[in-house]
Design goal:
Mean pLDDT: 83
Number of helices: 4
Strand content: under 5%
Largest sheet: 2 strands, antiparallel
Shape: rod-shaped
Structural class: mainly alpha
Distance between the termini: 112 Å
């Protein structure tokens, strides 16, 4: 109940708060409660930005990875050709064989390393993974060649 000479301040008589200050306190309380109720997490826009950045990095990295893989396969094949050529030359020196003879794989296999029997190298690009489908030895005067990719897998002169 209000007296005629009493002014309304928004609270009981004798209260020091005015209507404006009560409204301010209520707004602060509402904002604090809203902050407390808000769940932490990522928004859709933030997730989309991260996915876009990952996609951009993938488009940059994948072609370089493919190029590095093909270069390493080429290098491995050329190293196999060097090993075959060295085995041919070593067999020819030990057997005192003329340059026109073509050695068989069984002749050079002990010189290919990795044990007494040696291992038959294969081109990394060869799906059959056999020596016969990977390399052609030729005679002692010609270097071995790769049957899979003869244009890029070549011994340097």
């Amino acid at each position: 109940m209000m007296l005629a000479n009493q002014q309304f301040t928004g609270c009981r008589p004798g209260c020091e708060y005015s209507v404006w200050s009560v409204g301010l306190h209520m707004r602060k309380a509402f904002l604090m409660k809203a902050k407390a109720n808000r769940k932490s997490g990522f928004t859709l826009v933030e997730i989309m930005i991260v996915v876009a950045i990952i996609g951009l990095l993938a488009t940059i990295a994948v072609p370089n990875w493919v190029r590095a893989r093909s270069t390493s396969q080429q290098t491995a094949c050329i190293n196999n050709l060097r090993q075959i050529d060295g085995a041919k030359q070593q067999w020819a020196l030990e057997g005192k064989v003329v340059q026109t003879v073509t050695p068989a794989l069984s002749n050079i296999q002990p010189y290919l390393g990795r044990g007494s029997a040696g291992t038959q190298p294969t081109c990394p690009n060869d799906s059959a993974q056999t020596f016969a489908t990977s390399y052609t030895m030729g005679d002692l005067g010609t270097p071995p060649t790769c049957q899979i990719s003869s244009s890029t897998h070549v011994l340097p002169p």
